[in-house]
Specification:
single chain, 377 residues, alpha/beta, 7-stranded mixed sheet, 3-stranded antiparallel sheet, 12 strands, binds pyridoxal-5'-phosphate
Length: 377
Amino acid sequence: MTADIAPFYAIEISRLAHALKDQGRSIIHMEFGQPSTGAPKAAIEAAHRILDSDGMGYWESTPLKARLAKHYLDSYGVSVDPERFILTCGASPALVLALSAGFRPGARIALARPGYVAYRNVLKALNMVPVEIPCGPEVRFQLTAEALSALDPAPDGVIIASPANPTGTVIGPDELKAIAEVCRLRGIRILSDEIYHGLTYEAPARSLLEDAPDAWVVSSFSKYFSMVGWRLGWCLAPESHLAAARAYVGNLFLTAPSLSQHAGLIALDSRSELDGHVETYRRNRRLLLDALPQLGLSRIAPPDGAFYIYADIGHLTDDSLSFCKELLNDTGVCTAPGIDFDPVEGHRFIRFSFAVSTAEVEDAITRMVPWFKAKSL
Ligand SMILES: Cc1ncc(COP(=O)(O)O)c(C=O)c1O
């Protein structure tokens, strides 16, 4: 029997938005966490050159793995053998790889609810059991060591995302250490999704590898590096499971795109351009946070990272999908419904992505203020 997988409703809304665009409507796409900035210029230039000279065979770039190891040393002070990096087509296959090679069917994997839609669905597709921990605004929608200690029986694994999707909240360093310690004591294997690292507005994010050297880590070039469509990411497998992970990747996915590996190597040295995008997101975040009271939205956890705001709209609706469709139809502002991230409470939440231009954020606010005011009458 196939697993019962829920659709990704933001995709449905996005389709609707594109249909409206085709009819000549002006649409602001705030439904996906997708940078609109494109790959770093130097990476694109390198890709043009390499396209003419490389045969583009199956390939895993040794220089890229070595450069990623340097990135971990520079960013987190963690020394990682370059051979532990498995290059993938983004964090999505890296997640499938880590779960398949790290756990058995039937494994119970804890995760925060709300959380990224694919966690729950990939676990189900792999015949694993999601153990969702409700995480409300009082814990800034994040897992805590206390919640993990309280699970009985202990789960086999836990997925940690800091900064998280859909909230952008970060788990502080002390709490991360406490989580790592609980997992060590209870034999819970950690899978850390670090895809939003680089996109933080206060302190830089901490890698789980700093506190749990045997954690699985997945990440990609889709967010900070602004290379969504290049489909490049990585999975860092613990030594104990490296051979298994290599066997899985060879059979399930083979290699990541060669051109993207060449470009990714250059992107890792394009920080000043990429940090400029972070400054745009910082401005966008501020604009939205300042505007939310005018929309009557006060129940949020301000994001420390990523490019999302997850807001409680429970005073306006108990059907976030219809609400997002109505908002789109009336104003052209496309957002994601909370049910994508939380099947229980998500019907009263909405996610705004501010990975768009500042002008678009300003325009969206101008359109939404009167609409939300009219809704709350
Ligand atoms: C938390 C999280 N993990 C993983 C992914 C998958 O990203 P990709 O496959 O583009 O690297 C996303 C995409 O939005 C995400 O939000």
